[in-house]
Amino acid sequence: MYPKFVITAGGYFRLGMVSLHKHLLREGDVCRGGGYYEINYAENALELTGESGDYGRPRWESIDTLRVPVAYSGLSLVYFPGSRNGYAVNLADVVKIEYV
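The chain above was modelled as a monomer; its predicted structure follows.
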């Protein structure tokens, strides 16, 4: 079990401890990529990295609104396209975020 996330064509952001990214999808979902997550409590951020072996990197540009579970509304959403030592993208700068 690993901390993984996916985004769907409808913009839904799903995360959880699963063995495969597909376990985060529901029937009828179309996946727009995924990766791994870690909560950084010191920075108050949800840090996203890497890519799914099955679905590829998250394609943020393919969605208009990222629909995030309301439980994560107090955290910054940050994506590291390379390693955590590289540059980071604040997702609020590239996609509208809605908490559901």
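The longest strand covers residues 31-40.
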